[in-house]
């Protein structure tokens, strides 16, 4: 179906679904500054073919969901854990979306910041999570999952002024943090950047989302208390969220851990069958 805008208990969220509405629901949660289209259309279609009713959405402050207010200070977020909103608020947004869709529980899959949100959602609403898959993410502990200096600087680069500048910068950053073990598909990332720009950029929102990450708590103890089928997927060559973050997440959850050689901070097309098979295996438990 085409994307639609939903009023979800005080927040406007842009949503799209794939597949048979009678199939088990699966919620995809995307990462920092990334609209829902970063879950590639074909990837979503393949998940639907695997037997899920797939839902993707724009988090607040990105794409066509509601843009927030408030100024974010990254030093204050890190030092004082002060931010306009938290990862918990973003997790509650996901719950409001499921309410608006009349979905009681779902398989939940999150990548990067979306993995953090998915973890928070499972902690806050454990009965609403059938299975949890955390991809290229971390626990919030400040000793694991740290970026390389070069990747961290790339995330803090000044925002581009024109469409072409944005496309060029996003392609460059995608190459930097991407998967060295796989061929870089520049045309794919260029098209993604163009679609992202055309759906609307919100530079202030990026800083608010980043502040939510920097101000987040260590979820390790709460993740240990969860009892649900879970899977952690992480690339061994991830420069943005070091693989130690994935290992720590798997230990805390008691989850299956799939370390993908040569994968960085993206999901190369060649990895899709492996990821989809892992999600399906988890769901059949």
From TrEMBL:
Domain AB hydrolase-1 per the UniProt entry, residue ranges: 24-255
Sections of the chain in a coiled coil: none
InterPro entries, per database record: AB_hydrolase (IPR050471), AB_hydrolase_1 (IPR000073), AB_hydrolase_fold (IPR029058)
Domain of life, source organism: Bacteria
Keywords, comma-separated and alphabetical: Hydrolase
Transmembrane intervals: none
Pfam families: Abhydrolase_1
UniProt GO MF annotations: hydrolase activity
PANTHER family: AB HYDROLASE-1 DOMAIN-CONTAINING PROTEIN, HYDROLASE, ALPHA/BETA FOLD FAMILY PROTEIN
Entry protein name: Alpha/beta fold hydrolase
